[in-house]
Specification:
With 289 residues, the protein is α+β, with helices and mostly antiparallel strands. It contains six helices and 17 strands. Strand 15 and strand 16 form a beta hairpin. The structure holds flavin-adenine dinucleotide.
């Protein structure tokens, strides 16, 4: 049993029955084979910065991708550069790599915590950038354990979502960036990071934006105007800095987090007639068996 509160940025979450940390592709294949043979359900986990795991934990296995983290340049073609990244590489490391080499395309993703796999699964983005825009192909392991490359255009990406199905693993990706100047890339990254630091409570435990932006407006603005900043249940608080961030003030639990989501969604619905949709992924069971 491994407490998932140790592996999520919110520091919330009951225990996983099985916790696996593959060192490389062979050990991942082995783990997958054993889980399938024993009929044990499983989920992939990157840095746990976009999920809320319920207090009853995970019935089954959590496979942590953090050890698969290589990034390398593959080739150059005209003004483009092609890079291979493992799914467990930190997005921040990939952004830094592009910054150091003067490759453009990832600037808006600067400051987003988590792994490349997690970012691809939720099509992470900010400031008009989305990770799908630089993806060429994905190396995937399907539910049967078969590894293959899939073209990014064949995967249905949308706003903060992808067509990656539960129990499919993203192993790595080929991405395409544009050659630029290191100073120009650094300048854009610096501006985005500054904006993020000013607008988000990045120093407190959170999972980023709790709700998706409804068409044409921002969830943070609606929550703010509905008077939700500072609303608290147990030790979960709607941040005073950004109303779409809920922060763990100490020893928060998932039940209180979900109750607070319900409370503020109701306020927004009553005030604006808009139903908010969760951006964070909520996994696990309410109570352990
Ligand atoms: C302070 C803060 C700021 C943030 N700002 C932003 C932002 O600006 N924009 C934004 O989009 N997000 C933002 N986020 C949310 C989050 O950081 C991103 O969504 C991030 O890309 C998630 O990566 P992760 O590795 O933590 O994913 P996890 O939370 O570990 O997993 C998320 C989902 O991806 C799946 N997954 C993870 N790895 C794999 C894999 N290898 N194969 C298959 N499935 C996998 C998991 O099963 C889960 O369903 C922010 C979060 C915080 C805490």
């Amino acid at each position: 049993m491994e407490p998932m509160s140790n592996h999520t940025s919110l520091r919330i979450g009951g225990a996983a029955e099985i916790f696996a940390l593959p060192r490389d592709l062979d050990s991942l294949k082995n783990i997958h084979l054993n889980l399938k043979k024993s009929n044990i359900p499983y989920i992939a986990l990157g840095s746990g910065t976009n999920i809320l795991i319920r207090d009853g934990g995970i019935a089954g296995a959590v496979v942590l991708f953090r050890s698969l983290k290589k990034i390398e340049t593959l080739r150059e073609e005209d003004e483009f550069i092609f890079i291979h990244t493992d799914a467990g590489a930190l997005l921040a490391k990939l952004v830094r790599f592009s910054q150091e080499h003067g490759f453009s395309g990832l600037e808006g993703l600067a400051g987003i915590p988590g792994t490349v796999g997690g970012a691809i699964c939720g099509n992470s983005g900010a400031f008009g950038y989305e990770i799908k825009d630089v993806l060429v192909a994905l190396e995937m392991m399907d539910r049967e354990g078969i590894v293959s490359w899939r073209r990014a255009e064949d995967i249905a990406f949308g706003y903060r979502k992808s067509g990656i199905r539960p129990e499919e693993f993203i192993l790595g990706a080929e991405i395409r960036l544009k050659k630029d100047h290191a100073e120009a890339v650094s300048k854009r990254i610096g501006e985005f990071l500054r904006t993020k630091r000013e607008r988000q409570p990045i120093w407190e435990p959170s999972a980023g934006c709790v709700f998706k932006n409804p068409p044409g407006t921002s969830a943070g603005k609606l929550l703010d105007e509905a008077g939700c900043k500072g609303a608290t249940i147990g030790e979960v608080e709607v941040s005073e800095v950004h109303a779409n961030f809920f922060v763990n003030k100490g020893n928060a639990n998932a039940l209180d987090f979900i109750r607070l989501m319900e409370l503020v969604s109701l306020r927004v619905e009553k005030r604006f007639g808009i139903l908010l949709e969760a951006e964070i992924k909520i996994l696990g069971r309410e109570i352990a068996d």
